[in-house]
Write a structure and sequence with these properties.
Number of helices: 4
Largest sheet: 6 strands, antiparallel
Distance between the termini: 41 Å
Shape: globular
Oligomer: single chain
C-alpha cells in the first residue's frame, strides 16, 4: 500500500503547534490571502502578501506554495476533487506552519485552507494569520 505524502506531517506533535492559547493577527492588513491553482501554484495574492512575505505580487505569482510553506513540499494539496482531508484537519485545529518569506525570514503562522470555485474551475484559498506576539522568529 502506498503511503500518503501527508504522513510526513508529524501528527503526534500537532498539539505542540496548535495555538489554542495564543492569538492570531486579526489585522486584515497583516492577513495574507493567496489563491492557488489545484497544482499548488500561486495564482493571485492580496496586498498584505507583498509586505508580509517581502515580495511584490508579480514575483510571488506563479511560485509554488512550498516556496513560502516548505512543509507543503511533498503534501498533496487536493485529493479526490477537494482539499486534502489532513490539511483541512490541520486548518481546523489552528496548526501553525513555519513560513519563509522571500528574504529568508522565518515566522509562524496559522494557515487556513478553503476551496473556491470560479468560472467552473476549482481553486484553493490559503489564508495566513501570523501568530502573535511578534511576527518574526528569533
Amino acid at each position: 500500500m502506498n503511503e500518503s505524502p501527508v504522513a510526513k506531517v508529524d501528527f503526534e506533535s500537532v498539539h505542540l503547534h496548535s495555538h489554542f492559547n495564543h492569538s492570531y493577527c486579526n489585522d486584515e492588513d497583516r492577513t495574507v490571502v493567496l489563491t492557488l491553482c489545484d497544482n499548488g501554484t500561486i495564482f493571485e495574492c492580496n496586498e498584505a502578501a507583498d509586505e508580509l512575505l517581502d515580495c511584490p505580487s508579480n514575483r510571488l505569482t506563479w511560485q509554488h506554495i512550498s516556496t513560502i510553506l516548505p512543509k507543503l513540499t511533498e503534501i498533496t494539496l487536493m485529493q479526490g476533487g477537494g482539499i486534502n482531508p489532513n490539511l483541512r484537519f490541520l486548518s481546523r485545529i489552528g496548526y501553525s506552519f513555519e513560513v519563509v518569506d522571500m528574504s529568508g525570514v522565518h515566522f509562524v503562522s496559522a494557515v487556513f485552507f478553503n476551496e473556491i470555485e470560479s468560472l467552473g474551475r476549482h481553486f484553493l484559498r490559503v489564508i495566513l494569520r501570523p501568530v502573535v506576539p511578534g511576527y518574526a522568529m528569533a
